[in-house]
Amino acid sequence: MGLRTAGSVLVVFLWSVTVVLSQKGWSVTYTTQSICTLKGSTVEMSCSYTYPSGTVTTTFWFTKKYAVENYVNLRNDSNYKGRVTYRSDKMNGHNLTITDLRESDSAMYKFRFITDQTGGKYTGDPGVTLSVTDLQVKVTTTWWSTTLTCSTTCTLTGNPTYTWYRNSKIVQDDSSPSYTVYFKTEDSFYCAVKGINSNAVSVEGHSYFHVTYTHQRICTLKRSSVDISCSYTYPSGHTVSETIWYTKGKLNEVPQILSLGYGGRVEYLGNMQSDSILRITDLREEDSAEYKFRFTTWEPTFPGTTLTVTDNTAGHILSILQTIT
Hints:
Layout: E1 11-12, E2 19-23, E3 26-30, E4 34-38, E5 42-50, E6 56-67, E7 70-73, E8 84-88, E9 93-98, E10 107-115, E11 121-123, E12 128-133, E13 136-141, E14 146-151, E15 162-166, E16 169-174, E17 178-181, E18 188-193, E19 196-197, E20 201-202, E21 210-213, E22 226-233, E23 239-248, E24 256-257, E25 266-269, E26 275-280, E27 290-298, H1 313-324
Parallel strand pairs: 1-5, 4-12
Antiparallel strand pairs: 2-3, 3-5, 5-9, 6-7, 6-10, 8-9, 10-11, 10-12, 13-14, 14-17, 15-16, 15-18, 18-19, 18-20, 21-22, 22-26, 23-24, 23-27, 25-26
């Protein structure tokens, strides 16, 4: 599986939820308890701390502790080499930034500080739980469509926008992680969240019920003519038995079916198997409406049971004997 980037870097900043851990004047306040973000992105964790007296001499973040007072500073951890940055301020705030995240970075991160006072050491425990996940496209196929879902092992922090690409061109930008395909195609699809891309998948070998209109809107003149067209698909083996155009009325209004020759102004064109054109002549202002197309198919059936009725008793007995043997 290849991981793409699209020229930008996902950075997660969290400043909303505070978690205060304190003891006799010592405290560490984390801005959040948990973060879920993407492999290859950058994450920032932050906290503030208090202490009763003295001067702070050492501050660091860690995930590993091998023995009493044997904490592994992230800066000295070979697994994080070149990827960790600390930043502090005069208000006792401290930030940890980790770049180029890996799934192995998933862990609980804790902040520890030491003062020049006897016994002046404190760890904010529990810390911040970081979950690093990859983007994967999950494919769900039904008889009418294929739904592609940008899947993660945890819920991404910050309500991100999911961008879907078809052959590297954007087809959807939405808060929903899913994109639905209603047509047979061998195109390549993948999703992205702020420059971090998923694996690519192809939707092949499926044909679905779907209608595609040539134009979403048409503006034309009174007394002129207009062609409203569409194309449609359906599973192989089905045969189109009926096609109709109708107007979508207002709420609670019954849709008006535009029969052939309706008012002498309506004509159906097209091959009636994969495309259709509604032609309306001598247009009037009251013709302004949303026009929709509907088609009905017969699906293939399997052979059933053939019943033969006869008054030939001897032939009937012979038929039963043949069935038994």
